[in-house]
Amino acid sequence: MNIIAAVDSNWAIGYKNDLLVRIPNDQKWFQKVTTGKVVVMGRKTLESFPNGIPLKNRTNIVLTGDKSLKVKDAVLVHSVDELLEELGNYPSEDIYVIGGESVFEALLPYCDTAHITKIDYEYQADRHLPNLDKLPDWRVEEESEEQTYFDLEYTFVKYVRR
């Protein structure tokens, strides 16, 4: 199973239920990597999408405690156990955990690859991803050349579990 996220220099991922920044190349890369795959998210992440509509051309699985929630074109699960059971229906390498914070934390132990866009900037934030650089069971496998978007510098980093 994979994690895919963009983080700032403090491993922040969001503020007030939105991304910290939108970098077109990062968004294109996210779309390329996840199209045709399974994306796993929490309810708040789903609500942060335009009109709260699931991502096209992907199997959207939403973890929510709200049993009355109905979402067209998404599979809803109500516990981590139920989520893991549902994920057993898909190849592990095709599953991408896309947020938010509590979903990343719950599923990190089940993931073996993390695709992280590291942005060299510190944003005001209220949601974070665990810092994989400080976790001994994760290591960097690949890192892109530094890229820029206006004055922002960022790299694409692939982490794998040791």
Structural commentary:
The protein is α/β, with parallel strands linked by helices and 162 residues long. It has one domain: Dihydrofolate Reductase, subunit A (3-Layer(aba) Sandwich). It is globular. A hairpin with a 2-residue loop joins strand 10 (147-149) and strand 11. The model has no long low-confidence stretch (mean pLDDT 97). It contains four helices and eleven strands.
Q: Assign an overall shape.
A: globular
User: What proportion strand?
Assistant: 25-35%
Which structural class should the secondary elements be placed in? alpha/beta
Helix content: 10-25%
The CATH first-level class comes to Alpha Beta
How many individual β-strands? Answer: 11
Alpha carbon gap, first and last residue: 14 Å
